[in-house]
User: Fold this.
Amino acid sequence: MNAPIKTAVIGCGRFSRTPLGNLKKHTELFELTGVADIDAGAARETARQWGIGRWETDGARLIDDPDVEAILVLTPALAHAEPTIRALRAGKHVFCEKPMARRTADARAMAAAARDAGRVLQVGYVMRHSPDAQNLRRLIREGRIGRPVFYRDIWALAKGNPSPSTHDARLGGGIIYEHAHWLDFVAFVFGPPAKVYAATMRLKPDLTTADDTFILIVDFASGDRAVWSESWAARGMGWDVMAVGRKVRPTLDVIGPKGSIHFPSPAGERILSLYESADQNGTPTEQWAWEQDWGANSAAYEGELIDFYRCVREGLSPCPTPDEAVTANVLAEAAFESSRTGEPVYLEV
Ligand SMILES: NC(=O)c1ccc[n+]([C@@H]2O[C@H](COP(=O)([O-])OP(=O)(O)OC[C@H]3O[C@@H](n4cnc5c(N)ncnc54)[C@H](O)[C@@H]3O)[C@@H](O)[C@H]2O)c1
Assistant:
C-alpha cells in the first residue's frame, strides 16, 4: 500500500475550499502538511479551518521543505508559473489550477520544467474528468453524428465574479480566466486547432477593464468547427449573481452529417439528447442526465485529484499532459490577437 502524498497548498482564496475539501476527504491519498498565502489572515484562517498544523506567507518555504512531495498551486493565473517551476525544480510534483499561466511563454516554460525534472505537472482542466463532458466527447469521437461537426456552445453567465482576475484585464480577464476550461475541452475533443477568429466587446466599462462579451470561432485540423459565445455584461447583476434563472450553459448544439446532439432538453431539463437520423420527429435515440450544465460535476474535482495521486505514485502521464494543457493558452492568446486585429490567426498544427 502506497503512503499518502505529503502535500502543501499555495493560495488560500475562494476556490481553495474545493480542492482542500477533496484532499481532506482522501486522507488515504494525501496528507496535508501546510498552506501558504501572501495574505497572512487567509493562510492562518485556512490552516485553522482545515486543521492543518502549518501556515506560511511565503510559499517557497513549503516548496523547499524536503518533507513535502507535492504542491497544489491555487494562486491567480499570473502567479502560477513561478511557484510551479520552483517546485518542479525542487523535485516536487505539482497540481496547478487553470489557466496554466497568464502567458503562453510561461505555460511552455512550466511544461519544459516538468519534462526536465521528470515530475508530474497536472493542470486543473476538470472537464476532462467529468463524466458529463466525457460522454459528450465520446459521442462525437465515436462518429455517432458523423464528422466533421459544427459545435455551437453558448455560456451566458449574466454575472460578476468577486475575483479581480475576471474583470481586471491585467490579470487575465474574461476569455483566459474563466473560459480556459472550454478552450481546453474543445482541444480535448477535436485535437489540434488550426485557425482562431474572435470578436470581443466591453459593455460595462465602469465595472471592468476586461472584455466582458465575445464570440470565438475555432477551426480544427480535423475539419471540425467550434463556435463559442459568452457575456457577463448584463447590468444590475452585481458581482455575485450567477444568472437570472438562466443556466450557465443555456445552449449546446453539435451538428454532424449523420445526426446531432443537444443540451438542454426541449423542456429545458439538464439532459443531453442524441438524434441519429432526420426522421425521428423530435424523438432522441438516447438521452443522458447531465449533472452540471457547464460540464464539470462535483465528482470531477475529486476525480482529478485521485488521478493526480495515481500519476505520482504509478508514474503515469496526467490528463492533460503539460504540453496538451498549453493549447488553451495558445487559443486564448490567438483569440486576443484576432480580436485586436480583426483578422483570423492561423496556428501551427
Ligand atoms: N477549476 C475550477 O473550476 C476553478 C474555479 C475557480 C477558480 N479556479 C482557479 O483557482 C485559482 C484561484 O482562484 P480563486 O478564485 O481562489 O482566486 P482568489 O483571488 O480568490 O484567491 C487567490 C489567493 O491566492 C493568494 N496569492 C496570490 N499570489 C500569491 C502568491 N504569490 N503566493 C501565495 N498566495 C498568493 C491571494 O492572496 C488569494 O488568497 C485560479 O487559478 C483560478 O483560475 C479554478
